[in-house]
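Protocol step 4 of 5: obtain the predicted structure for the target chain.
Materials: sequence only (see below). No template structures provided, no constraints applied. The aim of this step is simply to have a reference model before the mutagenesis design in step 5. Sequence pasted as it appears in the construct record:
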Amino acid sequence: MESPVYALEFEKPLRELAKQLDELRQRSIEMNVDLTAETGVIERKIEAMQREIYSNLTPWQRVQIARHPKRPYALDYVDAICEDFQELHGDRQYNDDRAIVGGPAFFNGEAVMIVAQQKGRDPKERMLRNFGMPQPEGYRKALRLMRMAEKFHLPVLSFIDTPGAFPGVESEARHVSEAIATNLREMAMLGTPTISIVIGEGGSGGALGIGVTDRVLIFENSYYSVISPEGCAAILWKDSAAAPRAAEALKLSADHLEKLGVVDEVIPEPLGGAHNDPAQAASALKYVVQKHLANLRGLKTEKLLETRYQRYRHLGVYEEASVVRN
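Step 4 output (structure tokens):
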């Protein structure tokens, strides 16, 4: 195991052991001595510590993994599981929002429509993609592509990965809330199979704007929430440092979401997160999408719409308290 270039706070003990392992290997080469026994001990320690750390992650730690800068982004997965992706641009009203990408592609030899939120790797691309925060024209572009998919009977695969819709003054002036609300309504009535996958961050209405689908899938170390942990902490406890407490209260991690029925299936990740083995993560994604897509293709349009309606109609649980008056 090589010393990681970027390590999260809870991964620091692993980084120290990895550093020791690298030093031992280097010493073995320089001094031409066999240190196999010594390196083996450290390798076993690393493996044991990995399993201990990653099998007991808190919701806040999973949020940190979801935000890892090396985590695979939407286009990484599209390149890995699809063929002949052709990006289409513009909303035909205002502009081309690069935070949302989309277009037709082939998945297992069959045509699909891709709609995805895309972050940037380096500072230049992050600015171009607006850090993965779509503006109104991004959601209108997404809707244009989904309507095209409906016209040509193409299933829609949407990849969710955003901290939220862009809240700037210009975005509000161009009616970002209306654009998201329109998408919610139209996706609910879209006459073609739809699947969304939360691959990293699933922040508030910004994520939901492309997420009202027949199936909602989520990677093991992703999150899906009505608000970011920091935002929730600032509102409830007047301190963004309470984000770990907020993450626990929000029940935003994949295991909680599956129990609550918000998502349909959790996609397993390689030990330590999808960034540790993107190919394995993509393979797991392809298997799960293939399974759900095959199931949805077998439904007639009327049944598809009714099943989608019932899914969202019954989402959430509440209790009514009766008040006894003397």
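Step 4 remarks: Residues 248 and 255 are 12 Å apart (CA to CA). The two ends are 70 Å apart (CA to CA).
Proceed to step 5.
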